[in-house]
Amino acid sequence: MNLGVFTLLWALISGASSQDYYEYDQYFPLSMYGRSPICAPECNCPGNYPSAMYCDELKLKSVPMVPPGIKYLYLRHNQIDHINEKAFENVTADLQWLILDHNLLENSKIKGKIFSKLKQLKKLHINYNNLTESVGPLPKTLVDLQLTNNKITKLGSLEGLVNLTFIHLQHNQLKDDGISAAFKGLKSLEYLDLSFNQMTKLPSSLPTSLLTLYLDNNKINNIPDEYFKGFKGLQYLRLSHNDLADSGIPGNAFNVSSLLELDLSYNKLKSIPTVNENLENYYLEVNKLEKFDVKSFCKILGPLSYSKIKHLRLDGNNISQTDLPPDMYECLRVANEITLN
Ligand SMILES: *[C@@H]1O[C@H](CO)[C@@H](O)[C@H](O)[C@H]1NC(C)=O
Ligand SMILES: *[C@@H]1O[C@H](CO)[C@@H](O)[C@H](O)[C@H]1NC(C)=O
Ligand SMILES: *[C@@H]1O[C@H](CO)[C@@H](O)[C@H](O)[C@H]1NC(C)=O
Ligand SMILES: *[C@@H]1O[C@H](CO)[C@@H](O)[C@H](O)[C@H]1NC(C)=O
Ligand SMILES: *[C@@H]1O[C@H](CO)[C@@H](O)[C@H](O)[C@H]1NC(C)=O
After folding, report:
1. Using a 6 Å CB cutoff, which residues line ligand 2?
2. According to the model, what pLDDT value does residue 37 have?
3. Quick one: how many helices (H) and strands (E) in the chain?
4. Of 32, 246, 262, 308, whose CB count within 10 A is highest?
5. Span of the secretion signal (predicted)?
6. Residue 32 has pLDDT above 50, yes or no
7. pLDDT confidence of residue 36
């Protein structure tokens, strides 16, 4: 039996869900690798998962000694306020996940090119710290970057991070000039969360590979014409709790055929922006809507031409049952929930 088949079998027997947290090789006894990572004395490296080192909630003020072989390092809920240049010197070829959530890190106390020296790093989480800008330079292997709940006002360059797929930047203090073209050229980017920041417009040059874009809870008042034109796979778009009025939304702004969910709730819209017929969930609650125009959902009506909307929320507006035109049901044929006041 070759190793791959054995691994798969074992993964099935031992429960596939563990795949999220473990790598296949941890199912094999250490002897197969001939090297047993030792653990930092204050931390915990579980016997069945020896390439992970857990140092959570230990009141640590700095990063402990990280022995060779450690791939997954958890340092959550400590008081770490600096990282020395040598902290990871013995795991530059090993470390894949570095989780530093809930510490006291500031940019000025992260010394040197610490992260870009980590040649296998895929996940970097520094949520809930005291960062005022993004960290960097970052290694090209990075897939998942999380810097939420800091005080970030400025993003550095993310250029060349060809595998970066997930970026979480919600709950920071990003303004338009702090972002400029930070996301340009991230050709693998699928998930971008910029919610709860202070942006007044959409970032320029977002990668068209995005599937999910969250921009809710900002101050965005305008969507440039054809902004989403090149986006072939965008499925989830949230723009709720912004300053969008009718004048800031060009007619074809949301005519994106891949879009399944659009959240425009808590804005200042008076009419319903036109959407593509493939849209399934449309949130428009708490705006200033006064009329319901079937043309917002169906350009033409016909046996094969109808809206795929399943859920439509219109509550918190000035639209009641009597405002709904009779031909609405011809268009919203598969809607199973329309919420009015
Ligand atoms: C790295 O390994 C060397 C040799 O074992 C050791 O002297 C050094 O303290 C280690 N560095 C860290 C940060 O653990
Ligand atoms: C770090 O952030 C915490 C929580 O936001 C705050 O209480 C503390 O004063 C900050 N420390 C520094 C050194 O900025
Ligand atoms: C990007 O990911 C692919 C597929 O996982 C991998 O083959 C490639 O080496 C990665 N590139 C970098 C720079 O890490
Ligand atoms: C939406 O875009 C398609 C092309 O992608 C176009 O054929 C269609 O007319 C547009 N719909 C509206 C309502 O403008
Ligand atoms: C709601 O719309 C009706 C007419 O459709 C209008 O008479 C009324 O003033 C509007 N109420 C508000 C709060 O805008």
Report:
1. 104, 130
2. 65
3. 3, 13
4. 262
5. 1-18
6. no
7. 55
The CA 64 to ligand 4 mean position distance, Å, reads 57
Cα separation, 80 vs 58, whole angstroms:
10
pLDDT in tens, 266-300: 999 999 999 999 999 999 999 999 999 999 999 88
Tokens of 34: 């001939």
Considering every ligand atom, which ligand is closest to the CA of 291? 5
Q: Which residues contact 12 (CB under 8 A, 6 or more apart)?
A: none
Distance from Cα 178 to the centre of ligand 5, integer Å: 41
Nearest CA owner, ligand 1 atom 6 = 90
Mutational pocket test of ligand 2: of 130, 148, 173, the residue with most ligand atoms within 8 Å of the beta carbon: 130
Q: What are the helix (H) ranges across the chain?
A: 3-13, 176-179, 328-331
Q: Ligand 1 mean position to 40 CA, how many Å? A: 11
Question: CA–CA separation, 6 vs 31, rounded Å?
Answer: 17
Residue 215's CB is within 10 A of a number of other CB atoms, namely 24
The residue whose CB lies within 8 Å of the most ligand 4 atoms, and thus the one to mutate among 255, 272, 306, is 255
55-64 b/e (C-beta count within 10 Å ≥ 16 → b): beebebeebb
49-143 folds as 3.80.10
> Does ligand 5 come within 6 angstroms of the Cβ of 290?
yes
Angle (nearest 5°) at CA 216 between 211 and 218: 130
Domain spans of the chain, in order of start: 49-143, 256-340
Helix (H) or strand (E) holding 54: strand 52-54
CA of 141 to the centre of ligand 3 (A): 6
